[in-house]
């Protein structure tokens, strides 16, 4: 894909529409199908709703909820480009706050984050807090680009996981200390990963998730699940119960 100057976009829905076209989603049908599949939905009404939502999102009539926002980012490969990821998060936060900055503000804020990310790790959290406070005072909106782990994929615990045969996804994460240190290695995490009759669990590498215990986004050792056959089972994964639903793609509504 041709690299674009992402900071020239000042509204999230315009960035979304441009990104969809760049990724080959000229209409919404294919992306709606993938959105349903990623969400574990297969009914015709789910597809119709996804297609309508995409149309509204690309036109700027509505904003997706956080879950759909994260799924869109995954489907469109947003995290593959750090500059795109930064702008994607920034504009979405601005749109939710109903206060969209102009292009000069966006470029300035992106530069602040870029400089902060090159400072020594011990000072990064303090620098991020000071930077965020200053930006809030000037712009009056919330944004996510201050997250020092923003380049890692975001995951979350879901008690019900819906997947298709052949699909592979990060479904949980094992955290270390609340300050981001001592992220577990796979050898530490593996004993709390169960056997599955529907697929295989494996090391998902480093990721990030919101920890209720830490009340912050922290880095984690991710657990990946690859679905091998259709069925339903409940397992205990990292001390949490997870019910996994795996569907055969042949049973999906076309």
TrEMBL record:
Transmembrane segments: 124-145
Keyword Transmembrane helix set for record: yes
Domain of life: Bacteria
Keywords, comma-separated and alphabetical: Membrane, Transmembrane, Transmembrane helix
Protein name: Transcriptional regulator
UniProt source species: Aquamicrobium ahrensii
